[in-house]
Design a protein that fits this description.
Blueprint (H helix, E strand, L loop, with lengths): L11 E3 L12 E4 L4 H7 L8 E4 L4 E2 L4 E6 L4 E2 L2 E7 L8 H4 L3 E8 L2 E2 L11 H4 L5 E2 L3 E4 L9 E6 L2 E7 L7 H9 L9 E3 L14 E7 L12 E11 L11 H8 L5
Parallel strand pairs: 2-14, 4-10, 5-16
Antiparallel strand pairs: 1-11, 2-3, 6-9, 7-8, 7-14, 8-11, 12-13, 12-15, 15-16
Length: 260
């Protein structure tokens, strides 16, 4: 009788992505991936769509995020971030997950008041300083089932997002493979994998926390809670750039639903 080899217990390590030598070369984000979010949006993507976020948008747990004066729709999005561990170029979906070294919690903040400015590229509404908090810890990918992860978000202690990666429209291996067809993914690059339903608007004074864990993996490893506090900035948008523009469509998408 042969003995089965036990699955390795994923390790959890602290990591500060804001240190220059730790800062990812690329931060790539997926527009829609969770069925719960897709149902809210009323759009069914046939293939993943992406946007880039600036490396300077990265923040650590405990940092603040500023809502510019004169704006109203600063929205949180709790997400799972993949960290590339080795170079990926033209890999297959079956190979994609093997190029991931770890996962961590992310909050893909966006300012819907400026969503109109860049026609889907999200440069201004998604790349502000502090708009991509990551951490606080990284769970190693070894021994993890990418379809058995969980992401949760709390606002002022109340849970507002709670979903798993089972049934994602675009599995993590596919995301790595798809991106690698045209660009080289390098060690340290980060992929934000989409947010589930429950993303909504935060106001100054709100404390938003995101946690990613693997509840069925050995040891039930967790990233710990990624904490961000919203503050009101004293600075408005400069008059020589795009100005905040809000209508009921943007309000509905930022809040998550017309009822909200």
């Amino acid at each position: 009788m042969t003995q089965s080899t036990p699955e390795p217990t994923p390790t959890v390590t602290e990591h500060d992505f804001t240190v220059r030598e730790n800062r990812p070369g690329k931060v790539l984000a997926v527009h829609l991936n969770y069925p719960s979010r897709i149902a809210q949006r009323g759009r069914s993507p046939q293939a993943p769509g992406y946007f880039l976020k600036a490396g300077t948008s990265i923040a650590r747990s405990g940092d603040t995020i500023e809502r510019p004066a004169g704006t109203e729709l600063l929205a949180y999005e709790g997400e799972i971030a993949l960290i590339i561990g080795r170079t990926a170029r033209r890999v297959s979906p079956e190979e994609g997950w093997s190029h991931v070294s770890g996962i961590t919690a992310a909050n893909d903040w966006g300012l819907y008041d400026l969503r109109h400015a860049d026609k889907g590229s999200n440069v201004k509404n998604k790349s502000g300083d502090g708009y991509t908090p990551l951490g606080p810890a990284v769970i190693s990918a070894a021994g993890l089932d990418p379809a058995a992860l969980r992401v949760r978000t709390w606002v002022n202690g109340e849970i507002v997002q709670d979903d798993t990666t089972q049934g994602l429209v675009f599995p993590f291996g596919q995301l790595v493979a798809d991106l690698s067809q045209l660009m080289t993914l390098e060690e340290g690059d980060v992929i934000l994998t989409g947010t589930p339903a429950g993303s909504s608007v935060a106001r100054p004074g709100d404390v938003v926390e995101v946690e990613v864990d693997a509840p069925t993996a050995p040891g039930a490893p967790t990233t710990g809670r990624l904490v961000t506090t919203v503050v009101e900035s004293e600075h408005a948008m400069a008059p020589f750039g795009a100005q905040p523009t809000v209508d009921d469509v943007q309000r509905e998408e930022a809040w998550g639903s017309r009822e909200a």
